[in-house]
Specification:
The complex is a heterodimer of chains A (244) and B (475).
Chain A (H helix, E strand, L loop, with lengths): L5 E5 L4 H13 L2 E6 L2 H11 L4 E5 L8 H12 L4 E4 L14 H29 L2 E6 L12 H21 L4 E8 L2 E2 L12 E2 H14 L3 E4 L3 H10 L2 H4 L5
Parallel strand pairs in A: 1-2, 1-4, 2-3, 4-5, 5-6, 6-9, 7-8
Helix pairs in contact in A: 1-2, 1-6, 3-4, 4-5
Chain B lengths: L10 E5 L6 E7 L4 H14 L3 E4 L15 E4 L6 E5 L4 E4 L5 H8 L4 E2 L11 H7 L6 H4 L6 E7 L5 E5 L4 H7 L8 E8 L1 E2 L4 E9 L2 H11 L5 E6 L11 E8 L20 E2 L2 E2 H9 L4 H17 L4 E5 H5 L17 E4 L1 E4 L3 H14 L6 E7 L12 E9 L5 H17 L3 E2 L9 H23 L8 H6 L8
Parallel strand pairs in B: 2-4, 3-4
Antiparallel strand pairs in B: 1-2, 5-6, 6-10, 7-11, 8-9, 8-10, 12-14, 12-17, 13-14, 13-20, 15-16, 18-21, 19-21, 19-22, 20-21
Helix pairs in contact in B: 10-11
Classes of the chains: A alpha/beta (244), B alpha+beta (475).
Chain lengths: 244, 475
């Protein structure tokens, strides 16, 4: 028996999301894979088997379509015990570039889209007194680095939102897991030189392990815990002079 | 008005006051009868079911509607008119019993019927046709409603009274929200001659003495109620403590004090701050702990002399409100209340059997309350000329199956003896119990009114669905 019977993955077409779908399906979990790119989802379904993976086309920025789709998925699958919000974007911001359109896109995909999903999901999980909600946040949410203000803001917002949700739902037996990966080799990071980069399948494995353990907040890989401890401890007056 | 997919309305996990029943719904909070009617129109267009909800004080699933719309009427809470010369008040549905007495007591008036807590809304009280400790004397809440306005899902706005639409008046009151939404109620209050009641405490050693108490004191008292230790067995079966209370007559209280603030409940109980009591009781929330508490309460009652004292109306009537969030004592799994009504002659035997059966099955009630009732002329009235036994049962994952099985057996017994149940509290009865308790003739009449006032069957609650209100269901 898989630990999770039915799961929903938002942002499932590539990267970490696609790996989560494959690994969960391989364990026997029935997965609702949600993403914009239907072609990618179809490939995933063909690879995993239509009995294990159901696909749903959805753009997380079309907020009005979110709750109706959640209701549809619940009706299709019968019950849901794992929900993963993995959708995220990180458009490049050049030195000296100030671009509201990009900032807005990051906030809408990484944060507002998450809220649109998490409201009906949390209500559902609270009422059934159980289940696991996973949000893929990032180490990037722990400091406001100079490279991409909105990305850091969006991940900090997601981490805090998930923390509040965890504190709300704890008493109802619902686990809320915040996963903070370091750099992962996915389409989002293509072309960037990043330290300690891991493959998406490794990140998905770490995420599933944290979800199964009901860990409140966890780094993937774990080495980021001490690194981020140090980075969080750097005083602002010094931090601004660095290129971290 | 909204023109959106109903899935996008805000959601809430609603629960019954006993915590055990819950469901996710989208919800709206209309502020007027027009807004409420608009929501019915919207629900009709979207094919969405609707449940009315007031303060959410029903213990079971009476104000829940999983996957549908819940209309919370608490924002409609204005006292539209209050005339101290006649004692008649016009009220919006979300006015609570507390709002009501705080409005009228200064003029020497008190709601003629109140449940054990002052927090329910008056429309919730009307939909459930609640009763108080004086049901044997003054009937249910509905007996004191002069006129009501009902907005129906079909789009009508009806005035109901004993003269106008009397058949709907007698079915919507006590119709657990299945015929429409009350948007205005006109009620008559009771004139008082004192802010206090004269209360007598009676030590009761057995179930036999319980019934003897009611038979004797309901002849003259205005209120009668008795607590039952539901854990004691053998010769002590049914032991407890009873109270009778009397209104003071004109002239008995030389300087009547009608100040609402003088009615407020004391801050401590036996020296313990009220806010902490639920937490302390929670520590006793097991069969053994409750045996200890019940025995302690009974022993205290037997040591204290039989006494007569004066007590404010609030302190006497709203025992439950003494302990804020008392339902937290039953966390995390919650509890259910179950209140069967049994005709007078059969009650002693049926109630003895309930006590014995629940004890034998290891699911004793942690709190039992006996009351005397009279029949009334509402279509789905829960009251009979007889007695009711209100019982609290904790629900745990371990006891749930046994508890339900036991209460279904008890319900069979209640039905066989011509009894009924209290929808304001129920969480367990099945369609067969609903059919047997109220009978095919009444149910058919109710269904005919449903077909007329709510042809699309928009109104739905978990309770109504569980009862099989709209169709006969096989069990």
């Amino acid at each position: 028996m898989p630990q999770f019977k039915n799961a929903v993955i938002i942002g499932a077409s590539s990267g970490i999301g696609a790996e989560l779908v494959k690994q969960l399906a391989a364990e026997g979990t029935v997965v609702a894979a949600v993403a914009r790119r239907v072609g990618e989802l179809e490939k995933l379904r063909d690879a995993c088997g239509a009995d294990k993976v159901r696909i749903y086309a959805h753009d997380v920025r079309q907020f009005d379509t979110t709750a109706p789709l959640w209701d549809e998925i619940v009706a299709d699958l019968g019950s849901i015990d794992l929900f993963v919000y993995n959708a995220g974007v990180m458009p490049r911001i050049e030195e000296s570039e100030y671009n509201f359109a990009k900032d807005r896109e990051m906030m809408e995909v990484n944060v507002v889209g998450a809220m649109a999903w998490l409201n009906p999901v949390a209500a559902y999980m609270e009422a059934r007194r159980g289940g696991t909600i996973v949000g893929i946040s990032s180490v990037a949410g722990e400091r406001g680095r100079r490279g991409n203000p909105a990305y850091h803001t969006s991940k900090a917002a997601l981490t805090t939102y998930l923390e509040s949700l965890r504190n709300r739902l704890f008493r109802y037996g619902v686990q809320v897991v915040t996963v903070k990966p370091g750099p992962v080799d996915t389409p989002m990071t293509t072309g960037l030189k990043l330290p300690l980069i891991i493959k998406a399948d490794e990140c998905a494995r770490g995420t599933i392990a944290l979800a199964k353990g009901g860990t409140a907040e966890g780094y993937v890989p774990a080495i980021w815990a001490p690194i981020m401890f140090v980075i969080r401890s750097v005083p602002s007056v010094i931090f601004r002079k660095t290129n971290i | 008005m909204v023109a959106m997919n109903p899935s996008n309305l805000p959601r809430r996990v609603f629960d019954g006051y006993g915590y055990h029943c819950r469901a996710v719904s989208v919800f709206a909070e209309p502020r007027s009868a027009d807004e409420l009617a608009n929501w019915f129109r919207y629900a009709r267009a979207e094919g969405l079911t609707v449940a009315m909800r007031g303060a959410g004080r029903s213990y079971g699933d009476a104000a829940l509607n999983g996957g549908g719309l819940v209309l919370d009427t608490r924002a409609m809470d204005r006292v539209l008119a209050w005339d101290p010369s006649t004692g008649v008040a016009d009220l919006e549905p979300g006015v609570t019993i507390e709002n009501l007495w705080r409005t009228t007591l200064k003029d020497g008036y008190w709601p003629p019927v109140v449940p054990g807590t002052m927090f329910p809304t008056i429309a919730g009280c009307a939909a459930m046709n609640v009763h108080g400790k004086n049901n044997f004397k003054v009937g249910p809440w509905g007996d004191h409603i002069l006129e009501a306005e009902l907005v129906t899902p079909g789009g009508e706005r009806l005035t109901l009274s004993r003269q106008e639409n009397p058949e709907i008046f007698h079915a919507a009151i006590g119709g657990f929200g299945m015929l429409g939404a009350f948007t205005r109620l006109r009620v008559r209050l009771k004139k008082l001659h004192s802010g206090r009641l004269r209360v007598r405490r009676h030590h009761v050693r057995s179930l036999e003495e319980q019934f003897a108490f009611f038979e004797e004191h309901t002849q003259k008292a205005d209120y009668c109620v008795s607590w039952v230790d539901c854990i004691a067995g053998g010769a002590s079966l049914g032991r407890g403590e009873a109270h009778s209370a009397y209104y003071l007559h004109e002239g008995e209280d030389r300087s009547p004090d009608f100040l609402p603030e003088h009615q407020d409940l004391p801050g401590t109980i036996l020296g313990v701050p009220r806010g902490l009591v639920a937490k302390i009781v929670a520590a006793f929330s097991s069969n053994w702990g409750m045996k200890l508490l019940n025995t302690a309460k009974y022993t205290a009652s037997s040591i204290l002399p039989r006494s007569t004292y004066e007590q404010g109306h609030v302190a006497f009537n709203f025992l439950l409100d003494y302990v804020p969030n008392w339902r937290d004592s039953y966390r995390p799994h919650g509890f259910i209340q179950y209140q069967p009504f049994v005709p007078r002659d059969a009650a002693p035997e049926v109630f003895a059997d309930i006590l014995k059966l629940t004890q034998a099955r290891g699911v004793p009630s942690y709190l039992g309350v006996l009351k005397r009732h009279r029949a009334d002329d509402f279509l789905l009235s829960h009251a009979v000329d007889g007695y009711s036994f209100a019982l609290d049962f904790p629900v745990t994952p371990e006891n749930r199956e046994t508890l339900w099985r036991t209460l279904h057996e008890v319900s069979d017994m209640v039905c066989s003896n011509g009894g009924r149940f209290y929808p304001a509290k129920d969480a367990v009865i099945r369609p067969d119990h609903f059919q047997r308790a109220w009978g095919q003739a009444r149910i058919s009449e109710f269904r005919a009114l449903r077909a007329r006032l709510d042809p699309q069957r928009l109104l739905r609650t978990e309770l109504a669905a569980r009862f099989g209100v709209d169709e006969d269901q096989r069990v």
